[in-house]
Structure formats: C-alpha cells, structure tokens
Amino acid sequence: MGLVSIVGFGQLSILDDRHYTVMICFMLNIILAVLLTLLLFKRILHPIRQLMRMADDFKSGILHERLEFNKKDELGVLGCHFIEMTEDVEILNKDLLERDALNQAYGSAVAMLSASNDREMALSEVLAMLSMHLPVFAGAVCLHEPEAKSLFLTAVHGMNDDAKAQKVFLKHVSEELESLGHMMSLKYLSDVEFVLDGKTDAMKPEYAVMFPVLYRQEKVGALVLALHQELSPAQLDFLQKLVGDMAVAIKDISRYEHLKMLNTELEKHREKLQQERDDAVEDSITDGLTRIYNRGYFDLSRKGFIQHARRNYEPLSLLLIDIDYFKAVNDTYGHPCGDEVLIRIAQVMKKSLRETDFVARYGGEEFVCVLPHASVLQARQAAEKLRVAVASQHFDGMNGKSVTISVGLSALKDDDSDLQAMVERADKSLYHAKEIGRNCVVCDDEIGKL
Fold it and tell me: How far apart are CA 446 and CA 432, in angstroms?
C-alpha cells in the first residue's frame, strides 16, 4: 500500500499537466490498498482469530462450539481439521464420563451384593440401580431352583406380580437360556413379553436382552432387561462385568444360606442332645413314679446340707414320712390305686412345703424332707400342715376315702457329723409315732417325754 502511494505522488509531481488523471490514479491506489487490507483480514487474520478462540474454548473444556471455515485455503482446512479434532475429543470425553458413571454404579452394585446376605433384597436393589444408570424400564433376575432345573423369579423391577404372566415369562426365558448351549455371551430376545407393573396386558419391548449368569461354566440363571434403546459398548461391558460379580455374590449367599441351615440343624441337634442329657440326668435323680427326687440323689446330697448349715450357722431339720396302712391300701384296692396315692401325696408335699425344701422318695411308701434354715418349731409347723393336707385328700380308687401319714422329725445337733444321724433319729421318731396311734408328728426330743 505504501509503495502504491509513493508511485502516485511521483506521478503527481511529474505530470502537472495531467492533474485530474493523477488524482484518479491516486484514488484507485487507495481503493486497491483498502481492498488488499480487507482481503488480508478475511483470508488470514479472521481465521486466525477464530482458531485462537476455539483453542481458548478447548483449553477451558468447552467442546460444543462450532465455527465455520472456508476450505478453499490452508487456514480454512486447518480450522476444519481443528473442528473435527474437537468433535472427536468431545465423543471421547462423553465416553469417559459415561464409563466413569458406570464405574461408580458398578462399585455401588458390588457393595450392595457384598453387604447383604438376603439374595432377593440385594438383587432387587441392583435392578433398581440399573434402571437409574441405564435405559432400563423393566428387569428380572431368574435363578435355578436349588434342587431343580426350572427357573424362578428371584428379583424383579417394574414387572407385574401376576403369577400367570410370570410363568409365561419364565418359560420363555428358560427356553432362550437353554438355546445358548455353552455360549457365554448375551442374547437379544425378540419374543419375550413383559407385563409391566400396574398393567394387565403383555408387551414386547423393542430392545430386550438376556445375560446368562455363569459361575465356573455353570448356568446359575439369567439377567433379563427391557430397554428403551440399544445399549452402548460401554454399557454392555459394564453389564457383562456386573453379571460376573452377581454370579459370585449369588453363590456366596447360597453358601451362607446353606451354612446357616446347617448351623440351624446343628443347633437343633445340640439342643436335642442337651435335652436328652438333661432328661437322662433328671431320670437318674428322679423317682420314676412320683417324679420327685429319688433315694440315690438324696444320698448324694447329704453332705451338702450339713456343710451349708454349718457354714452359715443356720438350723436344719429333717422329716421322715410314712403312709399309714399303705399295705392295706394295695391289698384292698390294688397296686394302681396305691400308685395313685403315692403320686398324689408327693404332689401335696411339693405344694405344701417351700421351694427351698428338699423332697425325695426314701423307699416304698416312705418320704424324706430336708428343711434348710428351719428350726424345730418351724419344722413341726410345716409337718403339721403337711399332715392335715394329706388327710384332706380323697381318692377315687378308694371310693372317696383318704389316707393319713405319720411323721418323724429331727433337728441338727452340734455333734452330728453327717445327715445320717438325723435320719436315724427321725426314723426312731417315726416308729414312735406309729406306736402311739399314727397320723401324728413326733420330734426326736419328745420321745422320752411322751
């Protein structure tokens, strides 16, 4: 532009006689300079500014801006290539964002499967999560029965709970799963029908896919999904990986349930053995007829009564009881009636005496009662109460008649080394009670006074 101006001024100085012609040339030079400037801006400076703007947007992470370039020159071609690169980066970025979201969803799903030992609850939560991250509007997890080849619905999402519709669905899925043979890949289903939640009519989704749930080449079941659209490669990879973890979780939960069942059976067996042991112990210390303690357990407990009384400086009393004329009862009314009398009197003794008192069948129609921390007076009162209670009983086997008892009482003395001394004194007191007419209570201290 400067060169053209110089030439114009030169012409003006030389051609004085052609003033108007020189002025026209000068104006033309100026116009030519402006046109060259505009061409330079349009062809070079403007594309460069657009490229700089797109570069700044790219640096800031803005990938959706699209500018127009003229492909007839090198800068335009460069700008178009830059746009293509931006579009590729945007696609890659969307794919990375999708995969990142799917990885987070995968972590959540694995956590759900690992955190619960309830198979149905865990799988239902996974199906609900899939509907939030994938174009899934209905789905089901179908597993094989533990001891059968048929499938059953373990968990569903968005499906009707109608039994008839579910049976048709399971039949179709079972056939499709069987047709895969040893194939491990997914299968798109064309004829499977879904009855959606809240609906009554079945519908065939445009996109339905089935993933076999495999554990070490064993078909555990299948994951079936009804989709709004076809799955992307990233979504397919996500589901393939998730189904593998689902198979492991299902097997782990099955093992847990099996162990839980075994533990339950083991606990029941342990309780049974404990009960049998307790019953055996009880039988060994209990009289088979009256269900109170027997003579053997009384003999084992003798020492403990004395030691407890000595250690706590407490009184101790003992009652030896005999049913009056019991042989006559057996001879007159029979042994079953005699057994009834023994059982009833044992019950009366348990009811009349304290819970802390020890009651045992001593032999035949004799009973022994040990009364801890009971003085002679207290023991006599307990014996009288017992005697009156027995006399008030009437037996159907004896035509409504009653029986009486004689009681011998003895108390712990300072020179008693064991319970046998008390038993011997109580036996003498009992013998004395029978001599003076029966149906009475005699204390060992009273023998010489009566």
Answer: 10
